[in-house]
C-alpha cells in the first residue's frame, strides 16, 4: 500500500512538469480541438463545471485574482475552507495538530492577508487573544458561493492587505429559481486512535421572481489522537545538547458548527435588498497527557546523540481544556441600478468571542524519586529512553545525590511517585470584539469610462487578556491528589519512546477539580494579573475614488483610497504590586493608490499588470499597554503601543492563456516592498507611554514587538488547469490542476546591540506546490491531490510577528472518489493524509526539532444530495 501511494505521488510530480506542455501542444492542433466557439468552455462534468466557474470569473476580473467556487471546495477532502483555499496558486496553510487554521498567501505572514465577507472586512483573534489573523477553520463551505483571493487591490477594497484580500461571497437564493435543497452526510474514522469523524450540511433555498430565502447549516466533528515529541536545547561546553525530552499525547474532540440565513427582495430589475445572518463556531475539547524528562537536572554525560544521566527529575502535565471561537455576523444592504448609474449600501456587524480554559495540572517527582536513565536520539525527531532505573546513592546533601548510580531497572514510569510540588497553572484567556461597518459605493457610466466612488466607516472594540503573570494553586490547597486519576490504559502512540505510558482520567480530574475549587472559593479567571488585560478601540474612515477605462483591447482601473486610522489602547501597569491605569492614542492618515491594467493580446491571451499600496496593522495584544514593570532592573514586559502599521508598495504581473475548450495556463510574478516591518526583540522604550508621576521609564528595556526597517518579498507562480477532452474515448475524462510558487524574501532590523540584522519573513516557504490529477466520466469523479511546501519560520499562534521556530517541509497526499448515482445523489469517499505525515518544528536546523507531531490519516464516507 505504501509503495502504491508513493508511486502516485511521484506520478503527480512528473505530471506537474509534463502534462501542461503536452496539453498546450495538443490544443495547437486544429484536428484535435473540439468544434466550438473559442470563448465557450465545454462542460463535461461537475469538476469541470467548477473549473469553468472559477476560470470564467478570473477571466472577467479587473485585477490579479484567483477564485474557487463552492462546488470545487466540496470536491476535495477539505474539512474547512482554509484547506480548500490551499488548492489555489501561492496559498499555504498553518496547521494546528494537523488541521488547517490560517492561510498564508504567497508564503507571507498571515497578518498580511485581510478577509472580507461580502465585501465587509473581518478580523479574528487566536487562542493567544493577540492576532488579527482570521481563523478559517470555523467557516463552513455551505454558506459560500465563491472564495476570491484578490492578489492586487483596487481602491474599493480595504487597504489593510499586503499580499492579498480574501473575499468570501455568500450564497444568494436568487441564483436558482424555485426550491433547491442540497447537502451531504458523511461518517468515517481517524486512523490514529480510531476516533470517529462525521460531517453533515444542509442548504435549503426558495425563490420566485421577486424574492428568495436561504437557510443553511453545517456540522463537522472528529475525535483525534495526536502524538507529539518536544524538546529544548542549550550549548554546553561548546556542544548543543538536549535540555529535556517531552513526550505528549493529546486526545482532541474538535467540531465546527455553522448556521446561515439570508432573505433577498428584488421588486424590479436592478433593485435588490437583502439581509444576511451568519453564525460560526469552532470548539476544541483537548485532553493532554504529558511527561517531561528534565535532562538538565541530572548529572552524567549528555551528547547530541546519546547520554547517561543520574537523578533526572520527571514532570507530568494533564488537562481537560476547552477552546472556543464564535462569530456572529449580520449584514443588511441594497444594490440599486438605474440607466447609467447605481449605488449600493451595506451595514455590517461582527461579534467575535474567543476563549481558552486550560487549567493545567502539573506534577513532579520528589527529589528522592528522581530517576536515572540512558537515551539515544539517532533520529532527532524520535528520542528514546533506552534504559530507566531508580537512582541509588550515598544520600542527599543540599538536594544533590552523593555518588549517584543506577539502581533497580524500571520497566515503566511509576507516576505514583510524583509527590513533589503539585499545582494548577490556570491558563484562562478571553477576548471579545465588536465591529461595526457602514459602506456606501456608487458609480456613473459614460461611453468608455465608468467612475466609481464610495466610503467605508469601521469601528472595532476589543477587550480581553493574554496569558501572562498568573497565580498558581497548589493541589494541597483544595485537597486533590492527581495520582488518584491514573489508569491502566496505554497511550495510543506511534512514536517509540522506549518506555510505555498510561493515560490519566483527565475528564474526571477536571470535574473534581472544578468542584473542589468552587468549594474553596477560588475562581481561576481572577488569578490573571491586571497587567495581562488589554482594551482597544480603533476607528477607520476610508473614502475612495476610481475610474474604469475601456480602450478596446486595454482595460484600466486606477484610483486612490484614503484611510484615517485612530487607535486607543488602555490597560494597567504592575510595578512592584502597584497597579496604575495607562492609555495611549495614535492616529494615522495615508493614501493608497492603485492601478490595474488588463491587455487582451488575443481573445484567449490576457496580460495583466498592477501597482498597489497597502498596509498591515499591528495585532491587538502587540500594542497592549498592560505591563509588568521592574523599576530596579529597568525592564518592561508588555506590548508596544508605539508600533505603527507596516506599509507596502507592490507590483504584480500575469500572463494568462485560456484554453479553447476548457482550462488555463498562466504565469504570475509579483514583488512587495515593505516598510516598518514588525519583529520581536528587546529594545529601549522611546516614549512616555509607561511613565507615571513617580517614574520616567524612557530607556527601560522593553521585551515586545518593534518596527524594523524594510524588506522585500518576490515570487513567481505557475498555474495549469485542464481536462484533456482532446484525448479519445475514456481517456478524455482525465484532467490536471496544478500550480508551483517560488518565493524569496527578507527584511532588515536593528537588534538589541544596535547592529543591523537581516532575517527571513515568518511563514515564507521558498517553494509551494499544489497538484492534482482527476478523472471524470461515466458518473465517476476521482482525484488524487498532492501538496508540498518547503520549510519556513513559523509564527506564534496567528500573531505573525514572533521569534517562531522553523517548520520543516511537509506534504499531504489526498484521494477523493465520487460516483454520481443519478441526477440527485452521489456517493463519496475522502481519504486524507494517506501518507500519514509527520510535522516537525525545529530550532535553527532540523538536527534540533522542538516539536514533532503526527495525527494519522483520516477516512470519510458518505452521500451528497442535490434536489
Task: Explain what this protein looks like in three dimensions.
- The chain has 867 residues and is mostly beta strands.
- The protein has a single domain, classed as TonB-dependent receptor, beta-barrel domain (Maltoporin, Chain A), CATH 2.40.170.20.
- It contains 6 helices and 47 strands.
- It has a 22-stranded antiparallel beta barrel. A 5-stranded mixed β-sheet has the order 1-6-7-4-5. Strands 2-3 form a two-stranded antiparallel sheet.
- Strand 37 and strand 38 form a beta hairpin.
- The chain is globular and about 95 Å long.
- 48% of the residues are buried.
List strands and helices in order, with pairings:
Blueprint: H1 2-27, H2 46-60, E1 65-69, H3 70-73, H4 81-85, E2 91-96, E3 99-105, E4 113-117, E5 120-122, E6 144-150, E7 164-170, E8 178-190, E9 196-207, E10 211-236, E11 239-265, E12 271-294, E13 299-302, E14 306-337, E15 341-364, E16 371-376, E17 384-392, E18 396-397, E19 400-401, E20 405-409, E21 423-445, E22 449-465, E23 473-474, H5 475-478, E24 486-490, E25 502-504, H6 506-519, E26 533-551, E27 554-575, E28 578-602, E29 605-616, E30 627-630, E31 635-638, E32 646-658, E33 664-675, E34 678-684, E35 701-707, E36 710-723, E37 734-750, E38 756-760, E39 767-777, E40 780-789, E41 792-793, E42 806-807, E43 810-820, E44 825-832, E45 838-843, E46 845-854, E47 858-866
Parallel strand pairs: 4-7, 27-30, 31-35
Antiparallel strand pairs: 1-6, 2-3, 4-5, 6-7, 8-9, 8-47, 9-10, 10-11, 10-46, 11-12, 12-14, 13-14, 14-15, 14-16, 15-21, 16-17, 17-20, 18-19, 21-22, 21-23, 22-26, 24-25, 26-27, 27-28, 28-29, 29-32, 30-31, 32-33, 33-36, 34-35, 36-37, 37-38, 37-39, 39-40, 40-43, 41-42, 42-45, 43-44, 44-47, 45-46
Amino acid at each position: 500500500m505504501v509503495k502504491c501511494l508513493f508511486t502516485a505521488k511521484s506520478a503527480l510530480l512528473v505530471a506537474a512538469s509534463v502534462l501542461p506542455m503536452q496539453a498546450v501542444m495538443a490544443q495547437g492542433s486544429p484536428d484535435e480541438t473540439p468544434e466550438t466557439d473559442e470563448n465557450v468552455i465545454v462542460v463535461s462534468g461537475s469538476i469541470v463545471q467548477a473549473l469553468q466557474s472559477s476560470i470564467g470569473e478570473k477571466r472577467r476580473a479587473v485585477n490579479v485574482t484567483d477564485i474557487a467556487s463552492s462546488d470545487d471546495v466540496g470536491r476535495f477532502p477539505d474539512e474547512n475552507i482554509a484547506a480548500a483555499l490551499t488548492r489555489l496558486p501561492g496559498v499555504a496553510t498553518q496547521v494546528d495538530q494537523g488541521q488547517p487554521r490560517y492561510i498564508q498567501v504567497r508564503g507571507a505572514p498571515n497578518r498580511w492577508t485581510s478577509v472580507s465577507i461580502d465585501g465587509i472586512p473581518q478580523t479574528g483573534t487566536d487562542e493567544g487573544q493577540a492576532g488579527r489573523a482570521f481563523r478559517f477553520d470555523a467557516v463552513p463551505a455551505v454558506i459560500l458561493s465563491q472564495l476570491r483571493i484578490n492578489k492586487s487591490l483596487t481602491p474599493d477594497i480595504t487597504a489593510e492587505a499586503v499580499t492579498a484580500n480574501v473575499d468570501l461571497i455568500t450564497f444568494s437564493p436568487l441564483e436558482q429559481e424555485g426550491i433547491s435543497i442540497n447537502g451531504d452526510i458523511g461518517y468515517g474514522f481517524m486512523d490514529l486512535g480510531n476516533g470517529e469523524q462525521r460531517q453533515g450540511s444542509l442548504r435549503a433555498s426558495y425563490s420566485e421572481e421577486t424574492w428568495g430565502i436561504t437557510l443553511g447549516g453545517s456540522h463537522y466533528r472528529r475525535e483525534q489522537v495526536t502524538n507529539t515529541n518536544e524538546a529544548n536545547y542549550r550549548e554546553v561546553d561548546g556542544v548543543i545538547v538536549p535540555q529535556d525530552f517531552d513526550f505528549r499525547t493529546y486526545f482532541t474532540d474538535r467540531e465546527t458548527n455553522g448556521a446561515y440565513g439570508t432573505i433577498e427582495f428584488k421588486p424590479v430589475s436592478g433593485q435588490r435588498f437583502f439581509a444576511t445572518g451568519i453564525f460560526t463556531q469552532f470548539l476544541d475539547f483537548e485532553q493532554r497527557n504529558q511527561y517531561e524528562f528534565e535532562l538538565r537536572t541530572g548529572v552524567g554525560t549528555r551528547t547530541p546523540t546519546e547520554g547517561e544521566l543520574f537523578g533526572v527529575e520527571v514532570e507530568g502535565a494533564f488537562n481537560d481544556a476547552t477552546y472556543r471561537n464564535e462569530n456572529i455576523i449580520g449584514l443588511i444592504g441594497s444594490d440599486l441600478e438605474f440607466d447609467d448609474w447605481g449605488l449600493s449600501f451595506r451595514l455590517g456587524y461582527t461579534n467575535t468571542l474567543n476563549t481558552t480554559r486550560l487549567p493545567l495540572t502539573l506534577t513532579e517527582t520528589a527529589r528522592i524519586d528522581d530517576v536515572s536513565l540512558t537515551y539515544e536520539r539517532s533520529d532527532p525527531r524520535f528520542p528514546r529512553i533506552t534504559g530507566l532505573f531508580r537512582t541509588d546513592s550515598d544520600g542527599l546533601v543540599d538536594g544533590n545525590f552523593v555518588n549517584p548510580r543506577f539502581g533497580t531497572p524500571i520497566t515503566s514510569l511509576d507516576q505514583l511517585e510524583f509527590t513533589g510540588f503539585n499545582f494548577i497553572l490556570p491558563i484562562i484567556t478571553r477576548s471579545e470584539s465588536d465591529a461595526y461597518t457602514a459602506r456606501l459605493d456608487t458609480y456613473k457610466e459614460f461611453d468608455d469610462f465608468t467612475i466609481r466612488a464610495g466610503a467605508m466607516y469601521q469601528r472595532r472594540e476589543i477587550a480581553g487578556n493574554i496569558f501572562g503573570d498568573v497565580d498558581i494553586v497548589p493541589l494541597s490547597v483544595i485537597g486533590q491528589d492527581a495520582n488518584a486519576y491514573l489508569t491502566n490504559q496505554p497511550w495510543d502512540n506511534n512514536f517509540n519512546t522506549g518506555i510505555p505510558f498510561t493515560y490519566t482520567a483527565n475528564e474526571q480530574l477536571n470535574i473534581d477539580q472544578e468542584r473542589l475549587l468552587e468549594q474553596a472559593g477560588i475562581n481561576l479567571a481572577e488569578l490573571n494579573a491586571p497587567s495581562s488585560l488589554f482594551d482597544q478601540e480603533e476607528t477607520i474612515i476610508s473614502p475612495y475614488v476610481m475610474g474604469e477605462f475601456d480602450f478596446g483591447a486595454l482595460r484600466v482601473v486606477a484610483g486612490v483610497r484614503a484611510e484615517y486610522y485612530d487607535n486607543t489602547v488602555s490597560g494597567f501597569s504592575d510595578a512592584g504590586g502597584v497597579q496604575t491605569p495607562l492609555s495611549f492614542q495614535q492616529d494615522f492618515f495615508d493614501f493608497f493608490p492603485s492601478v490595474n491594467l488588463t491587455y487582451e493580446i488575443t481573445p484567449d491571451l490576457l496580460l495583466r499588470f498592477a501597482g498597489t499600496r497597502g498596509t498591515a496593522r499591528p495585532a491587538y495584544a502587540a500594542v497592549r499597554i498592560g505591563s509588568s514593570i521592574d523599576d530596579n532592573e529597568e525592564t518592561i514586559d508588555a506590548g508596544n503601543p508605539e508600533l505603527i502599521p507596516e506599509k507596502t508598495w507592490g507590483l504584480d504581473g500575469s500572463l494568462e492563456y485560456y484554453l479553447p475548450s476548457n482550462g488555463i495556463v498562466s504565469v504570475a510574478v509579483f514583488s512587495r516592498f515593505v516598510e516598518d516591518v514588525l519583529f520581536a526583540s528587546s529594545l529601549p522604550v522611546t516614549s512616555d507611554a509607561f511613565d507615571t508621576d513617580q517614574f520616567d521609564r524612557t530607556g527601560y528595556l522593553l521585551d515586545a514587538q518593534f518596527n524594523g526597517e524594510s524588506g522585500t518579498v518576490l515570487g513567481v507562480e505557475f498555474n495549469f488547469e485542464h481536462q484533456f477532452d482532446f484525448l479519445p474515448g475514456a481517456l478524455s475524462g482525465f484532467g490536471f490542476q496544478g500550480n508551483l510558487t517560488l518565493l524569496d524574501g527578507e527584511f532588515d532590523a536593528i537588534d538589541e546591540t544596535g547592529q543591523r540584522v537581516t532575517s527571513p519573513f515568518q511563514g515564507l516557504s521558498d517553494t509551494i506546490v499544489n497538484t492534482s490529477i482527476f478523472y471524470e466520466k461515466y458518473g465517476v469523479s476521482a482525484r488524487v491531490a498532492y501538496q508540498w511546501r518547503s520549510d519556513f519560520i513559523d509564527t506564534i499562534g496567528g500573531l505573525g510577528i514572533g521569534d517562531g521556530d522553523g517548520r520543516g517541509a511537509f506534504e499531504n497526499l489526498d484521494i477523493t472518489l465520487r460516483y454520481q448515482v443519478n441526477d440527485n445523489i452521489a456517493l463519496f469517499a475522502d481519504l486524507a493524509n494517506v501518507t500519514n505525515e509527520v510535522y516537525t518544528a525545529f530550532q535553527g536546523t532540523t538536527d534540533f526539532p522542538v516539536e514533532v507531531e503526527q495525527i494519522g490519516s483520516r477516512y470519510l464516507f458518505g452521500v451528497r444530495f442535490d434536489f
